Amino acid sequence: MARTVRGANLLITGAAGGMGRMYAERAVAEGAASVVLWDRAAAALARTADELGQQAKGRTRVRSYVVDVAEPGAIAKAAHKVRRDHGTPDVLINNAGIVRGNAYFWETDSGDDVRPTMLVNALAPMYVAREFLPAMIARGRPARIVNIGSAAGTLANPRMAVYAASKAALNGWSDSLRLELAQAGHRHVTVTTVTPSYIATGMFQGARGPILAPVLEPEYVVERVWRAMLAGRPLLELPASVRLSRSLRAILPTRAFDRVVGDGFGVYRSMERFTGRD
């Protein structure tokens, strides 16, 4: 893919605000042909679409669809409309995600916490990608899929068992998909898995960045993700200490890792003051 998304069609989930909106702003600034925004927050999505449309000044078609990605049927219906009205995306950014509560696993609610977290974080990216992958493969031109995972999916952490499970599932599926595409000879479609630590978007309000892993600024993350996406980079870990933690996890005995990284670096205490978005 070129150094920008100029002339490309993008679809971004969780695009009403936060980093989803920032990806859309970047696409409009670079002259994308179309930017399709998905989110379940109808009012915020409408405002974002209107403001981006003004920013685009007719150079980029900005369209929004109210979609709850926790509902597979809603994904299928919205995907049909996108294919009909805009064609197949050249770039798909699976950005939508949720985190619920600050509780131990046995204190969580299976209906209000477990199920929606797994649906939005783990299953929705699979359903969304499945809707567009066949056409991405068939047309033979460069395409990108970006899956926003989490460092929590590579490193266990108290008080976020369900979130960690959902992101571990996403990380595993995303990298497996990358390998399958390459093995099947579809190298024009690349998959980038992003595993950041905490980001200052409000989603993890109150969480404390461990030693060597400060809370990341969203602008920095968007810039790094964008560059990785354009380059077709397989994995982006932010900050670099995420890679260090994975390496130590492979080397150290479990109890030693708990003491050195979990307790010593403060990883296992990072969610104690978590409040999240209001």
Would you mind describing this structure in some detail?
Keywords: Oxidoreductase. Belongs to the short-chain dehydrogenases/reductases (SDR) family. This protein has a 7-stranded parallel sheet with strand order 3-2-1-4-5-6-7, with helices on both faces. The chain is globular, with a radius of gyration of 18 Å. Helix 1 (18-29) packs across helix 6, helix 3 runs parallel beside helix 4 (110-139) and helix 4 (110-139) runs parallel beside helix 5 (161-183). It is an alpha/beta fold and 278 residues long. Helix 4 (110-139) links the parallel strand 4 and strand 5. The longest helix has 30 residues, at 110-139. The termini are far apart. It has 8 helices and 7 strands. The chain has a single domain (9-269), classed as NAD(P)-binding Rossmann-like Domain (Rossmann fold). It is 47% helix and 14% strand.
Q: Please give the domain count.
A: 1
What name does the CATH topology carry?
Answer: Rossmann fold
Q: What's the CATH H-level superfamily name?
A: NAD(P)-binding Rossmann-like Domain
Q: Please work out how many helical segments DSSP would assign.
A: 8
H/E element sequence: EHEHEHEHEHEHEHH
Quaternary assembly: single chain
Can you name the CATH architecture? 3-Layer(aba) Sandwich
Query: Could you tell me how far the N terminus lies from the C terminus, measured between alpha carbons in angstroms?
Result: 39 Å
Please, what is the average pLDDT?
93
Task: Name the CATH class.
Answer: Alpha Beta
Strand order of the largest sheet: 3-2-1-4-5-6-7
- Global Rg: 18 Å
**Percentage of β-strand residues:** 5-15%
Shape: globular
